[in-house]
Amino acid sequence: MSTAEQNRRLVWKRVTESPAKPTSPSGRSAGGSISSLRSIRVPDQLLGWIIPVSTLVLWELLARAGVLPPNWLPAPTVIARTIYELAVAGDLWRHVGITLGRVALGFLLGAAAGTILGGLTGYASLARKLLDPLLQSLRSVPSIAWVPLFLLWLGIQESSKIALISLGAFFPVYLNLSVAMRHVDPKLLEVGRLYRLTSFQMVRRLILPAALPEYIVGLRSGLGLAWMFVVAAELLGASSGIGFLMVDGQMTGRAAIILASVILFAVFGKATDWMMNAVGRKLLGHRAR
Questions:
Q1: CATH 1.10.1740.10 holds for 76-288
Q2: How far apart are CA 182 and CA 143, in angstroms?
Q3: What phi, psi does 29 have (nearest 5°)?
Q4: How many CA atoms lie less than 13 Å away from 40 in the CB half-sphere?
């Protein structure tokens, strides 16, 4: 076999055994480009911002193009300027402070009552048979149905608003704690009996730690409902608060005020939920240690 024939066979063997990778127009291999794209990782903290930021940008563009009527849906920059003007005038912080105070007091009262009754019905079967059917039936009553009764009993002052917010925070805390305590692992309770723990020690050292994750979920749900109920409370007969700003914007035909109030509710509701979640994670981490 001639030397030229041997060289041709060698070249053909290399071509068939090692196929060339497809390359991009810039000269880089396509496989390398795809792998580099796959290696790009967006931090988890930024993933939740993609849709809100994209929505705001699209909203701004459509508003500036005249697609969205300014008296119905003003641009986000207009709403931001409205919030800034309220903050500079000092009205914003007064209304926000009053709403935060109402939510804090109502949530504390409702969560405390939910914790006491939830723990009682979760631990004692007699209390559960006596109280749980009544509380479960009251849980199905819409929030707006309580407003006339609270106004009749407590008047139009702060007490009726606090009572309505407390009612909203009560049921999630009660339900989650009661169910969590009833579903504690029986083997865990058997261990407590073997060590001859008293009822108080069983609750403090075994039952409550086991029910803590569901209890924290109930607290977060109760806080979320407290924010929902404060809207109902301030829309009906309030002269201050973020809900009052919404009514004022409606009466004066200013959509920017209404949307600014909605955004403020969303921001402060999310901030308080984040704080509650952080406290819950710290408690769970402390329990794990």
A1: no
A2: 27
A3: -70, 145
A4: 5
